[in-house]
Amino acid sequence: MEPVVLGFDEVRQDDADKVGKKCANLGELTVAGFRVPPGYAVSLTGYERFMNETGVRRRIEEYLAGFSADPGNTADMARYEEASVAIRGMVEQTPVPADIAAAIRRRYEALCAAAGEADISVATRSAGPASHPGQYESYLHISGADEVVAGVRRVWSSTFNQRSLIARARQGLDVAFDPIGVAVLQMVDAKAAGVMFTANPSDGDTDKIYIEANWGLGESVVGGEVTPDSFLVAKAGPEILERTIAEKRTWFTLDPATGRPTYQEVPADKKSAPTLTDDEVKEIARVGVLIEGHFGGAQDIEWAVAARAALPESIMFLQTRPAKNLVEKKSAVDRALDFMMREF
């Protein structure tokens, strides 16, 4: 039987069908020597075995046999939410097969041993075989082997959130079964985090990199919850061409009272302060160029800056995927013609 849990050093870019694109790309980055937090992948087979061997797939199919709603009718959205709550309850109350749970625990314990501390914090992040940004769910700052197993199961459960059920129904796909992988990734103690596009998304210029950053964890930037700082960087150099320092009102960070990440008000001394130093911006851009070269095309990259590490080791890369929806770069003549067309 093929292993269900694999270290990032055991997977490559072309293993997306086995472990999901996020895990496959993290493995590719790891093996290529880029700075990726330690972690491992739970394969799509793990999802399939959980759903089939426990009988939860059959129970979901029986539930859906009596379910009727139109995914194109806004009046039926509440029915999909009701179905989501019911199905997710089935999934999250079903024990993970013993051998899969044991493999997840062993890998987590190995991460703890390598870090030299017990019960390190990890994230369980969804990794679909095809890219569906924002569709599934991820869970941050999970600690303890049993909680990590539960975190993996919660990611599996997220394939039955309302938006996923509706998306599959609209596409005529199997609503009751949607195998995904899960990345278990050691958390970075991030002072700042964000995203980088290795081509300028506003005009498609492949000679420039665009970076967005906020204090704390990167979910505030990825989720569009804040107006982040932004930096436009020429790949040659690299050289910072433009910087826009926003007033940052909220950040996603650990709540000292609960130990869980939440949105909080940014401290007054940080609101108008740059999230990144020039050296940090240049290091993020420098590595971005290398990642783009390794994957052979413009990339959309998530990164974080560790609070208690020095450059360059402080910059960690959490995900990369092909950049999409870039505006086509136009020549000076084409831009002039566009301007004249607007004028007449």
Task: Outline the structure in words.
The protein has 344 residues and is α+β, with helices and mostly antiparallel strands. It folds into two domains: 5-186, Dna Ligase, domain 1 (2-Layer Sandwich), CATH 3.30.1490; 190-322, ATP-grasp fold, B domain (D-amino Acid Aminotransferase, Chain A, domain 1, 2-Layer Sandwich). 37% of the residues lie in helices and 22% in strands. The strands form three sheets. The chain has a six-stranded antiparallel beta sheet. A five-stranded antiparallel beta sheet has the order 1-2-5-3-4. Strands 10-11 form a two-stranded antiparallel sheet. The model is unreliable at 330-344 (pLDDT under 50).
Tell me which CATH architecture of the largest domain applies here. 2-Layer Sandwich
Tell me the name of the CATH class of the largest domain.
Alpha Beta
Radius of gyration, in Å, reads 21 Å
Outline the low-pLDDT stretches: 330-344
